[in-house]
Design a protein that fits this description.
This protein is 4% helix and 38% strand. It is mainly beta. 34% of the residues are buried.
């Protein structure tokens, strides 16, 4: 769609589930994950009798296409989940989450799908990564269980193609995964991070003010973990922030003023550096 919300039209296949859309360099092609090759029907909802869990469907692969949806090309084919891909326009590298190692790790590849390389190796979930604008850093959400009971729970869920997102922290590293460091320690769910236009801060969503709830607000934090500040106070679910290319606007998803439960809309707001 256009930046003002007009001219909305489908650019995926309309089959299976589709997630994690992103523009490739020059803005002429797009990147997304889809299960349509595994089945034309949507895979079943996650089993919420096991708590609030996300499905990591093994049928997900990553595709590129022209901006109108034509010219579809599959660029991952490993067994299991491949999704959550984003791209750095400067380095022309893609970072994504894959089960190719047997665990949910971050991998990188070129925009044509070549030169795949695993960049995280810690046991547990690593996902939702994005590059800094200069391509030198990445930030992502992770859950790295250490207690035996927590490790078993993670393994049991993963065996059923599930993972629990309710204890996620943020991590920053060099683009190749080296020098990784944890920058939040809330014991809650923090996710959807993105670098500020100057790459000095990270904007993200968290329920740290209402841990274990579905109430998420936007926060900003310095890349070293200092200077935490709450940005929104809408009282519901607000997440998935992204800066405009010129850094003057931020777009996000929220149920703010929604007339019905589970209705989410896209909003934009001015961004002011502090």
């Amino acid at each position: 769609m256009n930046a003002d919300g007009s001219d909305q039209h489908m650019v995926s296949t309309g089959k299976g589930r589709t997630t994690c859309g992103y523009f490739l360099p020059e803005g002429k092609r797009i990147l997304y994950a889809s299960t349509h090759l595994a089945s034309e029907a949507c895979p079943p909802e996650a089993d919420h009798s096991k708590g609030y869990v996300w499905a990591v469907y093994p049928g997900y692969d990553i595709f590129t296409a022209n901006a109108d949806g034509s010219g579809l090309k599959r660029i991952t084919s490993a067994d299991g989940y491949d999704a959550e891909a984003t791209v750095n326009w400067k380095t022309r590298k893609i970072v994504y989450t894959s089960m190719a190692s047997g665990d949910l790790d971050l991998w990188e590849m070129n925009i044509d799908g070549s030169a795949k390389n695993q960049i995280t190796h810690t046991y547990g979930y690593d996902g939702g990564a994005v590059f800094s604008h200069d391509g030198r850093k990445i930030v992502w959400r992770g859950n790295h269980p250490t207690a035996p009971a927590d490790k078993k729970k993670y393994a049991d869920l993963l065996h059923e193609n599930l993972t629990s997102p309710m204890k996620m922290e943020l991590f920053v590293a060099d683009a190749d995964g080296s020098n990784a460091r944890q920058i939040t320690n809330f014991g809650c769910a923090s996710f959807a991070p993105t670098f500020s236009p100057d790459d000095r801060q990270i904007l993200f969503a968290s329920n740290k003010h209402a841990c274990d709830s579905s109430k998420f607000e936007l926060y900003v934090i310095n890349t070293d973990g200092s200077g935490l500040r709450q940005v929104t106070r809408f009282g519901g679910f607000t997440s998935f922030p992204e800066f405009s290319p010129d850094g003057k606007k931020v777009a996000f998803v929220s149920d703010w003023k929604a007339p019905a439960r589970y209705e989410f809309n896209v909003f934009t707001a001015d961004w002011e550096e502090r």
